[in-house]
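FYI - complex with uridine-diphosphate-N-acetylglucosamine, inputs then prediction.
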Amino acid sequence: MSLPWTILVTGGAGFIGSHTCVELLDYGYEVVVVDNHANSSPEALARVQKVAGRPLAAVYTIDVRDRAALTEVFERHPVDAVIHFAAHKAVGESVELPIDYYDNNVGGTTALLAVMNAHGVHRLVFSSSCSLYGNAERIPITEQSPAAPTNPYASTKWMCEQVLTDVCRHRPDLQAFSLRYFNPVGAHPSALLGEDPLGIPSNVMPYLAQVAIGRREKISVFGDDWPTHDGTGVRDYIHVMDVAEGHRIALEHLDEVRGVRALNLATGVGTSVLELVAAFRRASGRPIPYEITARRPGDVARLIADPGEIERAWGWRATRTLDQMCGDVWRFQLDNPVGYQA
Ligand code: UD1
């Protein structure tokens, strides 16, 4: 295979996609992006190129389900590997719009696999989620923990993994990692790239940032009666730069995989909502008013990974701390008070 590799990144303008594009450009890859901007801004891609100091090879505003358009992309570029981020990802919305979620997330993946197959492209890194473990009985969660999705979003991710497993039986040359992210947060240290949710944030970190800057009055802490050390929900937060780095390292190890291999992408460190509020207060130096409210339907007490398998496989692990995550989010929030709209 000729170097540098050309990587097709679907959903490259999204939160994790954009940070991964910077990482790939920094390491000399040629990067082709496809994104339909269903939940992302083209401005993110302008910033990717500014941060990296070099251009993306091409950007296509298309939907991955549009096989004709996707085929043209594969005909124009010598794609060596694909990183597939493009998907809907809001748990609550997926309960309201399950058909959209299956159509977009599963349909997008099968369309992509068909076009990859037609062009002899056999390397894939798939964006999966810890949500497929559902309400895991055993903590920390290993890759061997059973899948038990509790909402349509999580089901689509599990279904895509099953599709990949079956496709591998039929097409043994396929080499894929399915990276099961825990809770990605943070921003690029340049403060040019970060998470820019549309409307009211449903995830805790962007909400905290908007409270700190004064855009929202206070954060609701969803329950203080969970069976955790301080009664609030515990999650395994991972810096988006570690997630981006993980994708680059995955590419380097793809040729060692036979079939599809699922790996947790996490730190193994659990942080409660109240600990996160305190960390964000430290990072921002601002008061963070909060109020304890009822539990959010569908939430679970604790989700913490065992990140050991990825370390054994690649000799790599996520290293960035909670303070770095909060500090980078805060700097992005300060420099971009209304996100990419500015
Ligand atoms: C969920 C999904 C995850 C998905 C992520 C991003 C599950 C189990 N997890 O993560 O797969 O990648 O969304 O879309 O489905 N909280 C508050 N107040 C808030 C917001 C959240 O107290 O305003 C609490 C929650 O109760 C939870 C923690 O903060 O304990 C994290 O919540 P959130 O950021 O929404 O992520 P998850 O629900 O863990």
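The mean pLDDT is 96. The domain at 6-189+237-267 is CATH 3.40.50.720 (Rossmann fold).
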